[in-house]
Amino acid sequence: MALCSGFIDGFESLLNKVSRNDDYDETQGCDTIQASTLFSYAGTALGKPSSYVIRGLAKLQAHRYVLFNCSNVNPYLRAHAEQITARHNGRRASHRDVEKIQNEKFHLWFRGHIMQIKRENGIDGMKDDIRWLARVPVEAAKR
Fold first, then answer.
1. Which end of the chain is more exposed for a tag (fewer CB within 10 A), N or C?
2. Is 114 within the bounds of a domain?
3. Is residue 125 part of a domain?
């Protein structure tokens, strides 16, 4: 029976049954939830989601985490690091100093840099995801 079930459409066995957490909609040919192009879609949470408000330091830390762990932001991180080392007036800035300054100021520099590019080139010259990352995150979140 198990051997035949692989060749019969619509017949479900232990070998070919769909996962209980499967979010793939075969009728549309794509995921039902549109995933970001920056981060892979990890799945659906089980249980009832709860909403909360993220403010202050936690919001800033979450924004920094996303910026420092997104591969599309790496060119901007390198450009910011180059600016930091150029401002040290000939003396070599240590890697630790650069990281400390980036941790404190990169999110502000990134927002200003993206806004400047947007003014010069318009919004057509950059990805939507990068523009959204440059903004301050919203306070509403779900767990």
1. N
2. yes
3. yes
Q: Is residue 40 part of a domain?
A: no
> How far apart are the C-alpha atoms of 39 and 119, rounded to whole Å?
27
Q: Has residue 39 got a pLDDT over 60?
A: yes
SS3 at position 30: strand
18: left (phi over 0), alpha (psi -120 to 50) or beta: beta
Taking the C-alpha atoms of residue 51 and residue 45, their distance in angstroms, rounded to an integer, is 13
Nearest one of 117, 115, 118 to 107, comparing CA atoms: 115
Can you tell me the distance from the alpha carbon of 15 to that of 46, in angstroms, rounded to the nearest whole number? 24
CA distances from 53 to 8, 26, 133, 137, 141 (A): 50, 35, 19, 11, 6
> Is residue 9 situated within a structural domain?
no
Q: Which of 14-18, 67-71, 115-119 has the lowest mean pLDDT?
A: 14-18
What is the domain extent for residue 106?
Answer: 54-142
